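Discussion board: Methods & Data

I've been asked by a reviewer to show the raw model output for two of the constructs in my manuscript, not just the figures. I'm not sure how much to include, so I'm pasting the format here to get opinions. Each protein appears as its amino acid sequence followed by a line of discrete structure tokens. Is this the kind of thing reviewers expect to see in a supplement, or should I convert it first? Here is construct A:
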Amino acid sequence: MTTHLQTPAPIESSSNDGLRARWNAVAERLTRIVSHDALALTTRVGVAAIFFYSGRTKVEGFLTLTDSAYELFRTEYKLPFVPSDIAAHLAAYSEHLFPMLLVLGLFTRLSALALLGMTLVIQVFVYPDAWPTHLSWAALLLYLVGRGGGRLSLDHAMGVR
């Protein structure tokens, strides 16, 4: 008794294959046009602006904290484990330093990690209902942590990964 194994019939080509091939060609062109370097630069500047402008609302002049910043940390933010006046200073300094480093592309991964930590603190302790906003910040920051600042950065110029 012999059994015959049947081989499956070849999948017939359809119009979907042509559409898929055209889409893949477009995707390949887009990948070449929108490089990691362009994504990293726009991500660095975009996320830096979010935090830098937030930091500017807390100070007047050259990093002199406003009374409203102290009040904000004392009444609304109420972070555990850190006195409100120290938290206000840490936030204001961080929201100026790390965004500037991101724009320059200097210590990009470290700066993105610092702002990611700040985002986590804001999400958990300050505005837990604002997760869609914080998730969008986190996605941008995670991209920078994972991929770095790109060729258009001081990190690249200095040979820092």
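Construct B, same format:
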Amino acid sequence: MSKKLPKRYVNEKAVKRALGIDSFRNVSKDKIMEFASLIPYMDKDVAIAIINQFPVYADFGKATIEQYTQACSNILEKNKESQMAVINGYQTILDALAKRIEKENISEIERKSITEDMIAVADKIAEADLQNKNFLERMGTKLLWAVGIGFAAIGAGIGIHSAFGGGDSLPQVSGDEEDR
């Protein structure tokens, strides 16, 4: 039993007609998404040749990466400011404790208590640093997952469209059989 293969776009002219455009040079983002949904119906070489003509497609990818980079930069800058405020607060406490311990007229018990307080503050600084590192790691992981899920969703959409959409007919094509 032979399985009938779906019809395919075998040249750029057929794809342009399906998209309702004259050129691939200045297409809108909507047309790029329509093109992406047609990829499963195209010969591989035709799809690659067309993608190479999409300056907007490359610009869209660059813009997305730049937006994520800017978001990361903003988050890191705010995190740095917040972390410095925490460290400066603890440093103020350490400075005050250092002034108290330098006094000559304090007992050994007070000196020991101040030293223990200084150690506790140092531990809090270390804990704040560890929490900050964990935050940065989680942020990086979440952004990586977001980008990965975005690309996976696009790929899954194309794959689902290929598996279930269209069957034996090509979407949005009318005209001569010679272009297919």
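Answer (T.O., handling editor elsewhere):
This is acceptable in a supplement if you add a one-line summary per construct. For B, something like: Residues 1-6, 160-168, 172-180 have pLDDT under 50 and may be disordered.
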